[in-house]
Amino acid sequence: MSIANRMLQSSIWLYIGQWVGRLIGFVSTLILARILTPDDFGVIASAMIVTNIFFVLSTTGMNEYLLRKKKIIDIELHTAWSINIILQCIVSFSIFFSAELIANFFEDQRLIDVLRISALVPIILSINNIGMLKFEKDLNYKPIFKITLLAQIFAFVTKISLAYYLKSYWAFVIAELVDVSVRVICSYIICSFKPKFKFDNWKDQWRFSQWMLAKGFFSTIRYKIDNILIMKFFSSTALGIYTVSKDLATLPAGQIITPMMKPLYVGLSNELDNLSVFTDKVQKSIFATAMIIFPIAFGISAVSSNLVNVLLGQQWLQATPIVETISFILLSGTLGTLLAHIYTILGRVKESFILDVIVGGATIIVFIAAAPFITFYNFALLRVIFGIFVTLATFIYLKKFIPLNLIKISILLSLPLFSSLIMYFLITLFPDSNILLTQSYALILQIISGVLIYSTVSLFLIYLTKNRFNEVEFFFKTFVQLPVSKLKTLLFRHH
Question: What is the pLDDT of residue 12?
Answer without folding.
Answer: 67
